[in-house]
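ping. complex inputs:
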Amino acid sequence: MELVRDGLNRYRIPRRGKMRVDAVIYVNDYLRRFLGEDKALEQLMNAACLPGVVEPVIGMPDIHEGFGLPIGGIMAVAPDGVISAGAVGMDINCGVRLIRTDLEARHFNKSLLRRLIERIEHYVPTGIGKKGKHQGITRRIFEEVVHRGVTAVIEAGFGRPGDEEYIEEMGCLPGADISACSRRACERGEVQLGTLGGGNHFIEIQRVTDIFDEELARSFGLFEGQLTIMIHTGSRGFGHQICTDYTNKLAAAAKRYGIELPDRGLACAPIDSPEGKAYYQAMACAVNYAFSNRQIIMADVARAFADVLGQSPEEMGFQLVYDVAHNIAKWEEHGGRRLLVHRKGATRALCAGHPANPPVYRRTGHPALIPGSMGTSSYVLVGTEKAAETFFSVNHGAGRLLSRTAAEKKITKEEFERAMGDVVYNVRSYKDLLDESPTAYKDIEQVIQTLVDRGITRKVARMCPLAVVKGVD
DNA sequence: ATGTTC
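pong. complex structure:
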């Protein structure tokens, strides 16, 4: 593998063979040594072979092997190019939402934290295959939700009017059309709205431990010692079914259009073809569903806090800071060109003043939310003007070091408990938790620092976990 | 990530 150093913390794989453009990877010396351990770079080079791809295909410092495009991959495509389901991912609009409060974390001891996470679990179903507790409402508004996004669930009573101003795309990606979603996808989606799911998804109660930029932190409503809440989930079985359906449809379409696929996981079709358009319409449905899923869960978490603390959400200063997508394809303008940017395990991070920011964060740049692995710190970042070189994107997390199966084999219960330290968590079966052990992930500090040193992002705040609700049976 | 091995 030819990796050519291209400035600080940046390496280039020059175009060769069927690659149409170069690939670029952001790693520091610590992270660089992990690059050969999986197929992530080959997958990045495969993506560089697709029609219409725009220079460069990008790997973030948390890059690791995925389905088609690696997790931590960014692929921008010109309008005459292709759209790929595998380049968005199985969990469409997997993403993160950060909630601020006026509460001080020092008042929350372990027993109080335990009562809180137990109450959160009372309201929010967690684990694979779980069904929602608001089905009476969510089944009725499902079609509205996929077309109109969070506004539909706010109108149904979850959260407050105006919350949508604190969500990427205002909580609704345009162009959604439910007729592009299979019956099976809709059946899975209807009953799972308002559920957390499994894997790396979580609800976390955190303490703000570090403020790196006072002025920005104040603009985002964050202060040292503050209690914050982070919700990490996506589109559940709905998005999963859409990705599965369309990987099959797009693989067949690629054949018809004479597109050579370097990997079935990168199944794609021209953006303007009927198949490509249909995938976009279905993907947008799942994007809107996931924003809405996080909105419902936020309302349930607010209810859990109100029950335990005896205060209303308003009295607690409960307020959405921002909600970002980590797996999405969107039309954006870059360097005067309109591009379809696929981000898979990557976060949009616009700089201050960028016109695509939501109005509430236009002046500062919106918060980019980066969850740590279980038991480790999460970050609030902001993009800089130099982030133009990554299509205004940063990483999405720490990045896996061990695959799920490798982690299950290698990590012991004792190692897991040591790594979790004082964090309160909802364990019932270690089987479901070991593959999410912090020791199965890379060091988030190194991942963030790689991009900070490169100058494409700035740290605003760091939060450490106090208690975490994971998807366990 | 996932009614996880359609």
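The radius of gyration of chain A is 21 Å.
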